[in-house]
Amino acid sequence: MIEDEEQRSGRDESEDERADRMWGELIQEVRVAQTGVQILFGFLLTVVFTPKYAELEHANQVLYIVTVVLGATATGALIGPVSLHRLVSGRRVKPQAVRWASRLTFVGLVLLLATMTAALLLILRVATHDGYVPWLVSGVVIWYLLCWFVLPMWTRHRHTTR
């Protein structure tokens, strides 16, 4: 009996219980990402109203617009799970809603990565015109990729039972 319990993996939960648990975990994750993207997006929205914006080179103004649009799309994707949950709540589709919310969250993280990359590039281009800016931004992007995607995927591959 003890041997069976030791070999057993997983949880003893119904599909609905699993969906409830996964929904709670997903919303906690989204809260962290939402806070970051909303602060960044809010800051970006104010830049266009400063005197410095008119002095930006055309390429930096275009980069700014791209960054704002990326921030808006990231915000939309990361708030999407809340709207999804609200609109389908009580319809007995929580497992499906969790899958779609998870996909929206992943898309939101990718868009957040793009937003942060563009914002960093813009700030460093304005702050300095040195040739090392693309290298510095590339290094930060590699760091994000390692932290956000490579390490989790490696952990998933290494420690997931098949």
Structure description:
By secondary structure, this protein is mostly helical. The protein is built from 6 helices and no strands. Helix 2 (15-47) packs antiparallel against helix 4, helix 4 (58-88) packs antiparallel against helix 5 and helix 5 packs antiparallel against helix 6 (133-159). The radius of gyration is 21 Å and the shape is flat. The model is unreliable at 1-8 (pLDDT under 50).
Keywords:
single chain; 162 residues; mainly alpha; 6 helices; 0% strand; flat; disordered N terminus
Describe the secondary structure blueprint for this structure.
Layout: H1 2-7, H2 15-47, H3 51-55, H4 58-88, H5 94-127, H6 133-159
Helix pairs in contact: 2-4, 2-5, 4-5, 5-6
Mean pLDDT: 91
Low-pLDDT residue intervals, each spanning 5 or more residues: 1-8
The quaternary organization reads as single chain
Shape by Cα distribution: flat
Please count the beta strands (DSSP E, at least 2 residues each). Answer: 0
Helix run count: 6
The proportion of residues forming helix, as a percent range, comes to: over 70%
Main pleated sheet: none
Task: Give the terminus-to-terminus CA distance.
Answer: 23 Å
C-alpha Rg, in Å? 21 Å
- The ordered H/E elements are HHHHHH
**Structural class of the secondary structure composition?**
mainly alpha
